[in-house]
Amino acid sequence: MSASPQFVATPLAPTRGVVESFDDPRGLGSVRSEGGTAYPFHCTSIQGEVRTISEGIDVTFTVVAGRHGHWEVAGLQATDSSPSSESDERSD
């Protein structure tokens, strides 16, 4: 008998989108890509030492094969154009 082939998940190219929802107590959220597809994510997918993110933030992420064969987000990161990274200071 020969060994069965193994599936190797290859991440897709980095994608841009917006955080559509985030449930802080559960650590679960969803991101809508620029193409209109929604992908789930867990707070451990957020880059850096934070485990929370605001809804409406522009982000970049990678789509990977997750548990049970569903696509999910990895490497979620706020972009420089996000409202959270813009300065609220205005000069008059």
TrEMBL record:
Residue span, CSD domain: 14-83
Family annotation (InterPro entries): CSP_DNA-bd, NA-bd_OB-fold
Protein name: Unannotated protein
SUPFAM superfamilies, A to Z: Nucleic acid-binding proteins
Molecular functions (GO terms): nucleic acid binding
